[in-house]
Amino acid sequence: MAERAIVGWDIGGAHVKASLSRHGLVHDVVQWPCPLWQGIEHLERVIALAHRRWPGLADAQHAVTMTGEMVDLFAHREDGVRLIATLLDECLGAPRFFAGDAGWCETADIAAHWAQVASANWLASARHTALALPDDSGVLVDIGSTTTDLIAFRLGKVPTTSRSDSQRLGRSELVYHGVVRTPLCAVARRIDWRGVELNVMNELFATMADVYRLTGELDAAHDQQPSADNAAKDLAATRARLARMIGLDARDGSDDEWRAFAHRWREQQVAELSSQLGRLTAAHDLRAPAVLVGAGCGAFLLPDLAPPGWRRLSYGRDIAHIAAQAPLGTLDWAEVCAPSVAVAALFDRDQR
């Protein structure tokens, strides 16, 4: 591995995202499913996969951010941050942890800075975006598998005073809507079927991955989580899961009807995200011509969210700096795994 290689890590509760950078350029990005709530050994397995993908990984510098401390494997968030940091220290050797306003800390400093390290990945992405667009104001919209981050930036700064997930939930900066894992019963209470509004069954029968599979927008490479019933992800099984949400079977409607039904769920999610975005832009007095920067595996929703007159940018194309020799698809993965790219870029910048 070349000198000064930096691996950026975003340790989540359902995925681990990692990027490999050299001299400020992104050479590779990957996302692995990692059901951390089922046991810390899943994180150990992913780190082993990283060692196989990038020989000489131990010689790299490691910049880490995380949200995985939230999973119910841990007694509390402090316990989660400490255990994740300890494991990474053992497997990677002297990683540095992004602690937001406190800068970077080593494993030995985790006890003092765990609250700043916990769930700070959004701040890394937003700071990287703001620094890349010093003359612009706008919002970074990172729509992931489970959540959406809506983070205002203005002239090179991230103006929010929020730091915890709890604070961000109150300010429309964190929305528990994603395009893969979100249960449909969390998206709407009533939904139209053949012109009649029906109550939605409050059961984990289907997720938003089923919706975006039928609309054709979810990249199969980003569809890494098991389906709600642990069954197949083909279109027939997907239609069956959607039908259960209103007490029907797939055979009770045509393929076109189920596709239209999926689009109605899409409309519900877009409406909720648009409402949250409107609240945020009003709070920060952001108006056209501002910028909306899309990231995450759900960035395909950005055109439906952009307020009139706003410019749209892509984190992968316009913020991340991709090496010319990077594998095909690295730009797309950089967009999906924005926090891992951002934390590596910030670490590299702070060392210069």
Outline the fold blueprint.
Layout: E1 5-11, E2 15-22, E3 25-33, H1 41-53, E4 61-66, H2 77-92, E5 96-98, E6 104-105, H3 110-117, H4 121-132, E7 137-143, E8 148-154, H5 165-170, E9 174-175, E10 190-193, E11 196-199, H6 208-215, H7 235-244, H8 255-283, E12 291-295, H9 302-305, E13 311-314, H10 315-319, H11 330-336, H12 338-351
Parallel strand pairs: 1-4, 4-5, 7-12, 12-13
Antiparallel strand pairs: 1-2, 2-3, 5-6, 7-8, 8-9, 10-11
Helix pairs in contact: 2-3, 4-12, 6-7, 6-8
Describe this structure in words.
There is one protein chain. The chain has helices at residues 41-53, 77-92, 110-117, 121-132, 165-170, 208-215, 235-244, 255-283, 302-305, 315-319, 330-336, 338-351, and strands spanning 5-11, 15-22, 25-33, 61-66, 96-98, 104-105, 137-143, 148-154, 174-175, 190-193, 196-199, 291-295, 311-314. It is α/β, with parallel strands linked by helices and 352 residues long. It has 3 domains: 5-122 and 317-351, Nucleotidyltransferase, domain 5 (2-Layer Sandwich), CATH 3.30.420.40; 136-179 and 271-315, conserved archaeal protein q6m145 (Nucleotidyltransferase, domain 5); 200-270, no CATH class. The chain has a 6-stranded mixed sheet with strand order 3-2-1-4-5-6, sandwiched between helices. It has a 5-stranded mixed sheet with strand order 9-8-7-12-13, sandwiched between helices. The two termini are 20 Å apart.
